[in-house]
Amino acid sequence: MLTKNEVIASADQKITAAWWNEFLLQCKNFTETIVIPDVLSDRDCTDMSMMTLDAVREICNRQAGNYDFRYYQGTEAMDEEYLKKNIYPFPPMPGETLTAWAERVFPGQKFGIILNYGEKFSPLLAETLGRYAAPLLQKIGIPVNGTCITIFIGNYGYTPLGIHQDHKGENVIHFHLGPGGKVMYNWEVDEFKKLGGHQNFMDVQKMLPYATEFPFKKGDIFYMPWNKFHIGYSDELSIGVTLWFNNITRKKMINKLINSIQLQYIDQEDDTITKPEKDINDLQGFKEIEALIKYDDDIQNLTVGQFFKHTYNEYMQALYSNGGWRARPLSLEQEVNYNENEFEHLHGKVIQRVSPFIFHYKISSDNNKLFVYCRASKIEINYHPELINIIEKLNSGESFVTNDLVAGLAREWPEEAGLYFLSLLYNKRGIQIID
Fold first, then answer.
1. pLDDT digits 0-9 by tens, 180-215
2. Gene3D superfamilies, alphabetically (predicted)?
């Protein structure tokens, strides 16, 4: 269950607003590759390493390859059948170090693991990196495609992807947790192409004499802009946690909005076959197609432009409620079969908002519904002004006894209604029990 966050900030924590200001100066506002040494303490590295292994364990326990979990032997990506036989049954044990896990499961092997969307599978990692990044995001804003975590684990030598360039606009910060070090090689775009290079270029040795080398060790932070051709070299066992800033193109963003409209407003279960049209001057089929659209009062009379803006605003509300993370966390229902309707356990508990995440909300135009954006999930509930009061109190960051928090609502609604509302937030990982 979601309980009090016991990760203690290190005494030598350095990642503050002032630190980010200096970072932006050194990398010339995200345009130059840099290494900043000795940022993370040993405690930071140990704690974050455990968080990354928690994410791997979650993937192994689910035994599902649709979460973009990749395992490499050398440059060969192993298939799902291999993972089910050789990786998923042997997850990292709670408290087990990377070195101990590697010796137990991969003795004498060179291996590599790449796990995307680490923010989804390790709540503590999302909270920790979210706190680190918050001052920077307050300064520069949240990328419209969000931020995300990719985890690199292993001693695989050169990155199995070959020399490559990341997606346009997607800059990356690498937090190196060790224990071993890593080297990143960079090439400028024009020079690399003149040398005959291209995306996923595998003849690394041919290009190394022309590269700029950036070695870094445990506790260092490495930053690289998206447009550098690059490859990493990890001959020693290590973990790298990367924070991505996904500044996508306008074309990609409009496609995301169209996809969002499909998911929210179009019946995805309908499989009715369309009928042929008989008369171009009397087309009948659109009425049947339009029936799939789930209109509500807030969108029914909007123009196309207004509808897209409405969808964009909702999308950004959800993104902001998740601290910028692109992937919403696993709900407690997904993780431990939590039942939102069984809220009695919250009676008399002390709860608090999960930092650094803030609830966002809006009220329907007819004042009948309240929409709460919690960790990138949209919760719909009947409106009452006291629900806003509860949200604002939680957003203060203070802790509250649940019964006291819902007391104002309980004057007009049953106390159970307030506890049910808190249960919805708890399931989506918006609040935590601290006592």
1. 999 999 999 999 999 999 999 999 999 999 999 999
2. Cupin
